[in-house]
């Protein structure tokens, strides 16, 4: 059913739904949950909460409250594990400055956890992923590689320190990055999650009717990512992302298979990918660095291209 107040729904590739309440106020709502990506229950809860909140930040909204969603095998695992998962989520929500107002839990064969998150935004100040402009600079606020490292951890082949580094990246809220973004008039934004860096970039350019250029050497990586990719420790989801992009990406000579997989790596709770006018990019990068975001790197630019292609150079 069509509703004139539903500004953004399921018809596009936006990060969250937006419903207009008044001329000055709109509600932004999202939901996300998944199975454990780390062994520690508390850390899993914190990462899942940060991941769910990320869509609200990407839309330029301020989160206001959340609801828990959980599945748990009550007859197979002690309830203390569920308590720790929920505690991790609660602490991350507290860090975001929002209450968890309730939720729902079902019995499931495998633990699952996430959140429904609501935020508020002015209807004319929504950050979409469909409004990038030629000449924009692409800025990334977290390094990539969490999918590759998580796979290596499960296989017990992760380099020393890489798991800790990946957990820190995944559990960091995109709050500071979003606050910096709101101070600058950016054109488009999305968060980098399961479709990988290039998959989410493709959502931006295909929705905006433009192309993009990415320089692999300027993309920040979580320590250990390159070594693991070089050993072909590649998640199945990352391979699917690479296959899906197909002819949408042109790889210059020198961009090896391992480089390609890193740029397609399926992320959990990744950073914001921001398309900002070049004349304002320096201001945004300075603000991000001052705020201490995990990364503040210029990784490429938006170009004119009706075919909506991504060109990757080394």
Notes on the protein architecture:
- This protein is α+β, with helices and mostly antiparallel strands and 314 residues long.
- It has 2 domains: 6-121, 60s Ribosomal Protein L30, Chain: A (2-Layer Sandwich); 137-313, PurM-like C-terminal domain (Phosphoribosyl-aminoimidazole Synthetase, Chain A, domain 2).
- Helix content is 36%, strand content 25%.
- Helix 5 runs antiparallel to helix 10 (278-291).
- The model has no long low-confidence stretch (mean pLDDT 95).
CATH fold label of the largest domain:
Phosphoribosyl-aminoimidazole Synthetase, Chain A, domain 2
Q: What's the rounded overall pLDDT mean?
A: 95
Q: Helix/strand/pairing class, anyone?
A: alpha+beta
Which CATH class of the largest domain? Alpha Beta
Low-confidence stretches: none
Please give the alpha-carbon distance between the first and last residues. 47 Å
Overall 3D form = globular
CATH architecture classification name of the largest domain: Alpha-Beta Complex
User: Helical residue percent?
Assistant: 25-40%
Total count of strands: 13
Q: How would you characterize the largest beta sheet? A: 7 strands, mixed
Number of H/I helices: 10
Q: Identify the CATH homologous superfamily of the largest domain.
A: PurM-like C-terminal domain
Order of helices and strands: EEEHEHEEEHHHEHEHHEHEHEE
Q: What spatial order of strands do you see in the largest sheet? A: 8-11-7-12-9-13-10
Rg, Cα atoms, Å: 19 Å
């Amino acid at each position: 059913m069509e509703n004139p107040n539903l500004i953004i729904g399921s018809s596009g590739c936006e990060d969250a739904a937006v419903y207009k309440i008044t001329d000055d106020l709109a509600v932004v709502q999202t939901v996300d949950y998944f199975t454990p990506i780390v062994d520690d229950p508390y850390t899993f809860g914190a990462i899942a909460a940060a991941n769910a909140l990320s869509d609200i930040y990407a839309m330029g909204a301020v989160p206001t409250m959340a609801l828990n969603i959980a599945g748990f095998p009550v007859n197979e695992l002690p309830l203390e594990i569920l308590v720790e998962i929920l505690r991790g989520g609660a602490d991350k929500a507290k860090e975001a400055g929002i209450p968890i107002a309730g939720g729902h839990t079902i019995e499931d064969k495998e633990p699952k956890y996430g959140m429904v998150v609501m935020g508020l935004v002015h209807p004319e100040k929504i950050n979409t992923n469909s409004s990038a402009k030629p000449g924009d600079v692409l800025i990334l606020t977290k390094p990539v590689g969490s999918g590759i490292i998580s796979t290596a951890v499960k296989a017990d082949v992760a380099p020393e320190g890489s798991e800790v580094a990946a957990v820190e990246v995944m559990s960091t809220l995109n709050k500071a990055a979003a606050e910096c973004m709101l101070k600058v008039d950016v054109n488009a934004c999305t968060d980098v999650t399961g479709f990988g860096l290039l998959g989410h970039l493709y959502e931006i350019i295909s929705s905006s009717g433009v192309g993009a250029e990415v320089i692999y050497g300027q993309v920040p990586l979580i320590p250990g990512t390159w070594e693991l990719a070089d050993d072909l420790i590649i998640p199945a989801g990352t391979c699917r992302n690479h296959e899906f992009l197909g002819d949408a990406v042109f790889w210059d000579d020198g961009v090896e298979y391992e480089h390609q997989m890193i740029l397609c790596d399926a992320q959990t709770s990744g950073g914001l990918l921001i398309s900002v006018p070049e004349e304002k990019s320096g201001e945004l990068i300075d603000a991000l660095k001052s705020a201490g975001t995990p990364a503040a790197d210029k990784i490429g630019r938006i170009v004119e291209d009706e075919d909506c292609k991504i060109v990757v150079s080394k």
